What does this fold into?
Amino acid sequence: MATTDHENEMREWTRLLADNAGEDEVFVTEFLKMLDASPRIKEEYLYYMNNGKFLGEYSVCGMTVVDIMIWQMDHFKSDLDRGLYDMQSNPDKMLLRAFHTMLKMEKEPLGFLEKYGSDTGTDYPGKF
It folds into this structure.
């Protein structure tokens, strides 16, 4: 099957995001393969690529990519509070991780739903 210009644009944009995020070609290949296998998440991803904002029409167990991104940012802040990361904010990495998590969650939602319900960051007393 021939690859369209739109597909090539998506692949190149993904490589650019991955470079900015510090991800390697193995990640890019896996991510694109997973994206090709999920038409609904791919539609969300392409919408973001073309519009710079989230479509938010598809969810996995009630969670959109925006919900996943917010959970990941909260989780990231939690790790920062514990001194586990020494890095600046990286929006490209957060975007890729949110879509990658949604792709994995679509295949095995229960493990992610358990994490989502139990890891709520550090914004309340007694967390640690």
